[in-house]
Amino acid sequence: MWAKALWSREYAQARLFVWGVPVVHFLALGFGRLNQWILDPAAVGRAERYAGSGDILAAYQNGDLESFGRVWLLLAVCVLALVQFGTERRNGSQEFLFSLPYSRRRIFFTKWLFGASLIAGSLVLNTAIDMIVVAASPMAPLFSLNYHLTEIGYSAALLLAAYSAAVLIGTVTGTAPSQSVFLVLLGILPIGTYALLDESVRIMWNDRGFPDTFFYEELQDALNLSHFFFLQHDFVTWQKTLVFLLLAAALAAGGMWSYERNKPENNGKLILFGWLELVCQIGAIALASMFCGMIGAGLIHAGEARIGYAVGFAAGFAVSLLATSRLRKVRLKT
User: Fold this and answer.
1) CB 259 within 8 A of CB 104
2) Sign of CA dihedral 178, 181, 186, 190
3) CA atoms of 287 and 317, how far apart (whole Å)
4) Tens of pLDDT along 217-246?
């Protein structure tokens, strides 16, 4: 699967990422630790207090610096996926790429492996620096290899899943702007849909759609994707790491499947596949209708909230149906 020409091409269009991502990641993780435990004059006294109590997690800030690093890497890999797929369509280089004597599967695998290597390289390099800083600082007695291995494993699996999702979106959208929009929506739709359904059920049937139970609290956490990037070390487990690795593999396989079936003549469409375009239209209409129904329930006071909700829902349905039908006909220049 190795093709020097393809790797050289990926590096040429993303060289800034190769050098810039690890540097900024260091500022988020290694320099933060350096600033806290070596440059800070109060580090010695703080280390003695933590050593006396044996509170290793407090000394490591319970993973706050790693969370900061994960967020930076998330932004970086989303932009990288945009460059690898959306920008290629926009500047017309995708047609040239498809004319090369390589299968689309090989091209896709090279792209994905390039991004995965960037994630792994930055994590390994900066985790090693972080470990050296800890070992050379007053915090050395609290050094925990298990902590570092758990954090790097979890971060790698989570970021691979996020990158694979961004890549999948890049293979099913026909323009850079639509890929950008769907990347943003991916972060808010799961928990947003949960909230809309819950509130709609409450208004129409005067009952909570999702009761305040432990199960639904866990469900909210699972649907709030930002939760996983800010997860404190207390809640990081190897089980979660395995789940994200499996998710990354499934999303990457889906991306490869759609990339092999991309038709360049569809470039410029918001979504490349007609069946998926219809699914997205139905979903957009449903969400817009519920959202407008909630607005109607708050604005129209005609005896009970469900009347206002019904009016708003109907208006949202009509407007969103018209808007999405027109969007399906739009073909942007690439």
Assistant:
1) yes
2) negative
3) 9
4) 788 888 888 999 999 999 999 999 999 999
- Cα 161 from Cα 120, distance rounded (Å): 13
- Between CA 332 and CA 334 the distance in angstroms is 6
Residues 252-280 pLDDT 10s: 999 999 999 888 777 778 888 889 999 99
Nearest to 270, CA basis, from 330, 320, 311: 330
pTM: 0.91
The full 3-state SS of the chain, as one line of letters, equals: CCCHHHHHHHHHHHHHHHHHHHHHHHHHCHHHHHHHHHHCCCHHHHHHHHHHHCCHHHHCHHHHHHHHHHHHHHHHHHHHHHHHHHHHHHCCHHHHHHHCCCCHHHHHHHHHHHHHHHHHHHHHHHHHHHHHHHHCCCCHHHCCHHHHHHHHHHHHHHHHHHHHHHHHHHHHECCHHHHHHHHHHHHHHHHHHHHHHHHHHHHHHCCCCCCCCHHHHHHHHHHCCHHHHCCCHHHCCHHHHHHHHHHHHHHHHHHHHHHHCCCHHHECECECCHHHHHHHHHHHHHHHHHHHHHHHHHHCCCCCHHHHHHHHHHHHHHHHHHHHHHHCCCECCC
At position 37, the amino acid (one-letter code) is W
